[in-house]
Amino acid sequence: MRAVVALFIGLAVVVVVRLVMIQVIEHERHEVQADRTWAIETKGPRGAILDRNGFPLATSIDAWEVHVDTRLWARSGFQPTDASRRLAELLRAPESAVLSLAAQTHAGGGHDALIAYGLSNALGAQIHAEALHGVQIRKTSSRRYIEGSMAAQVIGLVGRDEQGLAGLEYQLDGVLAGEAGLLVQEVDGLGQPIPFGPRAERPYQQGASVVLTIDRNLQWLAETTLHRAVEQWHAQGGHIIMMDPRNGDILALASLPTYNPMTIDLDLPESMALLRTRAASDIYEPGSTMKVITMAAALDAGIVSPDTTFVDTGAVVIDDRTIKNFDLSYHGEQTMTQVLQRSLNTGSVWVAQQLGARTFYEYLYRFGFGDSTLSGLPGEIGGVVTDSTDIRWSPAQLATASFGQGVAVTPLQIVQAYATIARGGVPVRPRLVTAVITEDGVQRFEPQTGTRVISSQTSSTMTWMMQAVVDGVLGHPAQVNGWPVAGKSGTSDVVESGTYLVGESLASFAGFAPANDPRVVVLVRIDRPQGEIYGGIVAAPIFSDLMAQVLPYLGVPPTAYIANPGDWNTAPGIDPDDTQETSDGEHEQDALTADVADDEEPASPVTYIQDEEDDQ
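Below the sequence we write its predicted structure tokens.
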């Protein structure tokens, strides 16, 4: 009897000791073993990015991800096992890399380590079938960019987690990605779902598709044209932007250098600079393309007319600075139309002085300089305008700003300003997205216009003068047979680390056509061309070639129109034959006269409204 009692007591002691070990000493290990639920975030397919005609530029395809429950692999101390070895074989990856990923996640307090993504259906099914210890396969999607590098700086790209990293993929990530779901389920010791175990799920919401204003065919034309120009001139890069002035639609936006989102290596430091949308985030001195804005302001303020004259002596002294014409020439009495045709720095300075600093800078702000265009591109900045209220300002800065030095703008701002003239004096916001398509329907976005900048009469007169710059000059390289053209070239100095580089330029031409009924505004800028620096020689012919292809594509057939310089010979002393070599400035080099301020961004008074027809 005593033996039986002792046996029971002994058993009781063993049970108690074991309970203490399980519930106290080994509590953590058994808690891990008992916790067999796995909460999984589920994602639906990312929405597509479509061009204006519905052609897919970015889309998602079904793919698979490999995850590891680090709590299960932690029991082996993240040392090689049959499961890790076989997983590495299937993924064709070093086993040490697989184990390292799992260990790093566990060390950071995570239980769910992403080991691989973008797997094909066949490989995903094979890994799932092998039921490896602690390994789970989840259905996901993989991003594909149908046209490779086309419009890459606009579209952007996603990272390994399918989150937007650049471009509209980043800016519209919440729209494209949708809303993640959640799946909570019970799993076995291998980390595989138990068929009839408890399960709770919150379904995901599929991402919306986005329709862009970009036209795939025009984008291809812009990019191939830009590539050829950069190669021809051995340049370092450039931009071609096409915009419909009627509604602000960006039809094409090409920039070089660029990247291919399918092949770019984001681990390389130089790759990050390529992700920037340079047309909206990089600033430059616009050079003589700004003379159009100066003249438009003076016309609108009633200070000058196309036939107003001034005497060009070839130089003007402001404080201790002497500003000369690009070719060191002088022309005597000149009309305002001739000032633009010959791109006279002295004439632009005279116009700005007649306006006065306060009025001049007010018009710059009205045209949108110094403020973002609100295009929707990530990283967009407003440029730099240092006006007369700034302690660093001097009268010389008014003079140089009149011909595009001492102010800094983005390429997109120049396009918007020229579009304002083309559409009668009312600005329109550059637009990249026209619609968002969801399961519930289509949300459309209307053009947004701003407060009138110049009168419709000023716009008409300015267009006539800009046409005189191109069609009013015999053999101007920007002319397009069959369509009237209005525009202006520019040759900007290159600034690096606060210093102007000798012999380097940004050669540009901006304009629109048909001048009598503008359908497209185009900016061509070639960065640091070699062998020639002037916008009238480098960029103007590119503009002409583009227009000859773009206008018919937009449904604007050619007419019998042929430029006749005599139609603009309304002022004394102008001889079209004399202006062939020097008109439009570039054939020009603006004088170095002012430093670029880098931290002053005054607010713009432009406020946007929904009614495109308002105040026209």
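The chain has a mean pLDDT of 84.
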